[in-house]
Design brief:
Blueprint: E1 5-11, H1 17-25, E2 30-33, E3 40-46, E4 49-56, H2 68-80, E5 84-90, H3 94-105, E6 111-116, H4 118-124, E7 127-128, H5 130-137, E8 140-143, H6 152-165, H7 177-190, H8 199-208, H9 211-214, H10 221-238, H11 242-261, E9 262-263, H12 271-279, H13 285-302, H14 304-319, E10 321-322, H15 325-340, H16 343-356, H17 362-376, H18 383-402, E11 407-411, E12 420-422, E13 432-433, H19 443-448, E14 455-456, E15 458-462, H20 464-475, E16 486-487, H21 490-500, H22 505-523, H23 526-541, H24 544-556, H25 566-572, H26 576-581, H27 589-598, H28 608-619, H29 627-646, H30 671-705, E17 706-708, E18 718-720, H31 736-748, H32 756-764, H33 771-779, H34 790-798, H35 809-821, H36 826-836, H37 839-867, H38 874-891
Parallel strand pairs: 1-4, 1-5, 5-6, 6-8
Antiparallel strand pairs: 2-3, 3-4, 7-9, 10-16, 11-15, 12-13, 12-14, 17-18
Helix pairs in contact: 3-11, 7-8, 7-10, 13-14, 13-23, 14-23, 16-17, 16-20, 17-18, 21-22, 22-30, 23-30, 27-37, 28-34, 28-35, 30-36, 31-32, 32-33, 35-37, 36-37, 37-38
Length: about 900
């Protein structure tokens, strides 16, 4: 639309620009990226007039081309030519902010200066003569408070009036006489080569030798030579380079303006300065930050946030929930009564007793157990199969009754299949699992493993009638749907609906297991992340986070990272998705990309089941506190080593960006701005991470459920395996995923895990890291056993145990190390893709994570094999070479880097063609 007006918002970081943007527009508006870079672009219309669109430029300190943010801001002002610019400055830090203002004024656009934080200025006692300042700058000046929305409409109306007038700001001649003389001559020479309003701006860029900026002028070699002569004269007179001369002159002019327009109150420490003496103290700063972050982490990850996430996962995507307290209590009472009778143990114990008595043989015992399973899940079998199963059980009961079979002292198990023990002196206490033996071990072994003062939980006796009672109870186990106020989970409700309309099993599995199961793993984290964002956004908006980055910069610069990289890594210990999202606060593109690449190496909450699985194998579930921290330190160590190595490579070369950040006064953020900040991050996660995990989940579902029915009695045809005749719990062995795992097993061989199951589990872990444990349960026929099941521990250990019975603990730790350090879950990968905004960088990040994780795993396994088991081979040599390569890259001297940007030439002769 021709009558649409575009107004740019420019300003330093932390000047309140985004707060003003949200106050003027009422929302975040359009959020995208500037073309060709990963810098976020925001546009939205004014609440007072939808024909006025505001563009929120990135927070920058200068229009010099030292960062992507500065480049896109300058290009927008010079090439897109908005009708006006509102330059928002922090009035409590006016001198620093006016540096950018002098550059904006030179862009030949109508400019209005917004003196923000009026309330803080008044509190400080300083006085600014706005009329005098307006005269000095050559543009209108309006005092505002974006936080309290004071004078914001007046600011916009002034900008609209300036835009309609179409008169560019008339900036003062801010440079010294010798520089101004040189600029006058350059201006005279380039007139006609650019728009009249940009002549002075281009002249300054020529003087600074800014190659990218002056390229549109198409200067001849003769002109470049003449300009170079003019510049050299000034440089020789000032004994400095042209760019530094321009910078120095700007600050000298700003100092004169400050003397003329600002009356400073007697100097005294402000409240913020008093707080900063403590929170940024070299000794106290880091411990205070650790305490603050511990509280944030504790609230968001361990208590409130986790409670919300657990509720969503358990109720919306697993078991359903009650909205009627009486109905819930009735169900819980029935379930407790059911659990306390150990009906399944009674059934299994009675079948075993009949087998021991010679009433049935091993094959018959298996047949009876299968028949029981069919009767317990009749909906999964045909009517003929159910009738046949009932007949098998009836025949068995008749035989057992005739032989007077009675099972005595039948051991009980918990939900994970572990034997359990109880304290006879505390009859009301919950039984505890026995983790020293497998739940399938002989009962005498379990009795021997009982702790002192405890006793094995058993069912005293089971006769034929009690067997039938137990079987009837399991067939009619408490169903929450039978109680008032029950709301089924989303998967259950969708399954019931799809079944009611006659949908095929393939479609039901795709929708429920593939789509809902995958996307649900993303949505389940929303409560946790909401709480986390509420706390982090508050700390950021109130001004504390900028202090944190300042404190951590001292530490992180040693490893080639900015202090701003610490926050994403800390957040990633809870969840990698918000951790990667937090990298957007890092202005330097190289530092931001490196942080996004490395931050998910920190073990997140989803990796805890994997760590628990290793703990179970290595220490039998005992309270060995050091195992989990060991893997956390592995992640920290990997990040440090990677940071040092990558900084010595071409894509990440250079010192970390100079740490320049305003430390705004502490203040209470407005609820509106705070909420918009939270929603911006949360909605970005839902939209971006949710899309890729949807596609990836469907892909993994297809690979896991489709294949060739090659089992005994199978048709040998390709298709949906669970829907084919004769499929069993091991159907995944015949899936496409198993075939891919078999091929990838070769890759895992140097890590000591060359089975296809290891590769398949790692692939499934890409959906969500905790899937690795559940996949092992499926692959080893352990059903719903969790990481706390001794059977799961033994099955996992068995994958790393050789034919002679030796457990290769190095191989197991190597496999886990790989899954700790490799590519994160699909949700986090989707977020990395969003932050990188470049397919090449995204795949480079994923490739590095997988490659580095593989190398670390190989080194761990090969060194263990050599020094513990005495095995030496080809991969041992490769491991030593890899270790030597890492050490060389870490300790070799860092290349010397030029501090100047490649856009700034040493001589205009370099621009000659």
């Amino acid at each position: 639309m021709e009558d649409r007006m575009y107004i740019a918002l420019a300003g330093n970081p932390n000047c309140g620009k985004t707060t003003l943007f949200n106050a003027l527009t009422g929302s975040n508006g359009y959020v995208g990226n500037w073309p060709g870079v990963t810098v976020e672009k925001k546009e939205a219309t004014w609440k007072g007039d939808k024909s006025v669109t505001f563009t929120d430029l990135p927070g920058i300190y200068s229009l010099s081309p030292y960062s992507p943010e500065e480049v896109v801001s300058r290009d927008y002002l010079i090439k897109n030519r908005p009708q006006a610019v509102i330059d928002l400055v922090d009035s409590t830090n006016l001198e620093r902010n006016l540096y950018l203002t002098t550059q904006v004024l030179e862009c030949g656009l109508p400019v209005v200066l917004g003196l923000n934080m009026l309330d803080l200025l008044e509190k400080s006692g300083d006085k600014i003569d706005t009329a005098k300042l307006s005269q000095e700058l050559g543009c209108a000046v309006v005092q505002v408070s974006a936080l309290r929305e004071t004078n914001t409409d007046q600011l916009v109306k002034t900008a609209i009036d300036a835009a309609k007038a179409g008169k560019a700001a008339a900036p003062a001649r801010v440079f010294s006489s010798e520089v101004e003389d040189a600029l006058d001559k350059i201006e005279a020479a380039i007139k006609g080569k650019c728009d009249e309003s940009l002549v002075r701006w281009f002249a300054i860029k020529v003087f600074e030798r800014d190659a990218a900026a002056i390229e549109p002028l198409k200067l001849s070699d003769t002109e470049l030579g003449e300009f170079e002569r003019l510049i050299k004269v000034v440089e020789n007179a000032r004994e400095d380079d042209a760019e530094s001369i321009i910078t120095s002159d700007r600050y000298e002019w700003i100092a004169r303006v400050m003397d003329a327009c600002v009356v400073k109150a007697p100097k005294k420490l402000t409240t913020s300065e008093k707080i900063d003496k403590v929170v940024t103290n070299r000794i106290l700063g880091l411990p205070i930050f650790i305490v603050v972050m511990f509280l944030v982490y504790y609230i968001a990850i361990s208590t409130v946030g986790t409670a919300g996430t657990d509720w969503v996962n358990d109720n919306l995507f697993s078991d359903g929930f009650f909205i009627n307290g009486a109905g819930e209590q009735a169900y819980n009472d029935a379930q407790d009564e059911y659990d306390s009778n150990y009906y399944q143990d009674q059934i299994d114990g009675y079948i075993a007793a009949a087998q021991d008595a010679g009433v049935i043989d091993d094959d018959e015992a298996t047949e009876v157990s299968d028949a029981v399973a069919t009767l317990q899940a009749p909906d999964d079998a045909s009517e003929d199969d159910v009738n046949a199963a009932q007949q098998t059980v009836d025949d068995f009961v008749a035989k057992a009754k005739a032989a007077n079979v009675t099972a005595t002292d039948v051991p009980a198990h918990d939900g994970d299949g572990n034997y359990i023990e109880s304290d006879p002196n505390k009859p009301d206490a919950e039984p505890t699992p026995i983790t020293k033996v497998d739940g399938s071990a002989d009962a005498s072994d379990a009795a021997a493993a009982v702790d002192d003062g405890m006793e094995l939980v058993t069912v005293a006796s089971v006769d034929a009638d009690e067997f039938e009672t137990a079987l009837d109870a399991t067939e009619n186990a408490p169903d929450p749907a039978d109680y008032d106020g029950y709301v089924p989970s989303i998967p259950t409700a969708v399954t019931d609906w799809l079944t009611s309309i006659g949908t095929s099993d393939v479609v039901i599995s795709l929708v429920v297991d593939g789509v809902i199961g995958g996307v649900g793993s993303v949505l389940g984290f929303i409560p946790q992340m909401f709480v986390l964002f509420v706390l982090l956004c508050f700390l950021e908006d109130c001004g504390y986070m900028s202090r944190v980055a300042f404190v951590m910069d001292r530490v992180f610069r040693r490893f080639g990272l900015s202090g701003k990289s610490f926050i994403p890594m800390l957040v990633s210990s809870g969840c990698g998705v918000p951790g990667v999202l937090a990298t957007k606060t890092i202005e330097n593109e190289k530092d931001r990309r490196m942080t996004a690449m490395l931050t998910t190496m920190i073990p997140c909450g989803a990796k805890q089941p994997i760590i628990a699985l290793v703990m179970g194998v290595l220490i039998g579930g005992s309270d060995a506190w050091w195992v989990a921290p060991m893997f956390y330190f592995l992640g920290v160590f990997a990040i440090i080593i990677s940071g040092i190595m990558l900084k010595k490579t071409k894509p990440f070369e250079g010192e970390p960006a100079p740490f320049v950040m305003e430390l705004p006064d502490y203040h209470m953020p407005s609820i509106k701005s705070w909420w918009l900040h939270i929603w911006e991050r949360l909605s970005g996660y839902i939209k971006k991470a949710g899309t890729i995990i949807f596609a990836a989940s469907v892909g993994i579902w297809f690979l896991s459920n489709f294949g060739i029915a090659g089992w005994d009695g199978g048709s040998g045809a390709f298709g949906y395996l669970p829907g084919m005749e004769g499929f069993g719990d091991d159907y995944m062995d015949y899936s496409i995923l198993a075939g891919i795992g078999g091929v990838l097993g070769i890759i895992f061989a140097p890590l000591g895990a060359d089975s296809w199951q290891a590769a398949a589990a790692s692939i499934s872990a890409l959906i969500a890291k905790e899937n690795l444990v559940s996949t092992f349960g499926v692959l080893y026929g352990l059903g719903d056993a969790t990481e706390n099941s001794v059977s799961m521990w033994n099955g996992f250990a068995g994958m790393f145990t050789d034919a002679s019975g030796v457990l290769h603990a190095g191989a197991m730790c190597a496999f886990v190390a790989f899954n700790m350090l490799d590519a994160p879950c699909f949700a986090a990968m989707g977020t990395i893709r969003r932050q990188m905004d470049d397919p090449k960088w995204f795949w480079a990040a994923i490739g590095y994570q997988c490659g580095f994780g593989w190398v670390v795993g190989m080194i761990i396994n090969q060194l263990w094999e050599l020094f513990v088991l005495g095995n030496f081979g080809f991969w041992t040599i490769i491991a030593f070479l890899a270790l030597a390569g890492i050490l060389f890259q870490v300790f070799r001297p860092a290349p010397k880097f030029e501090g100047r940007d490649e856009h700034i030439l040493d001589s205009l002769a370099e621009a000659e063609k």
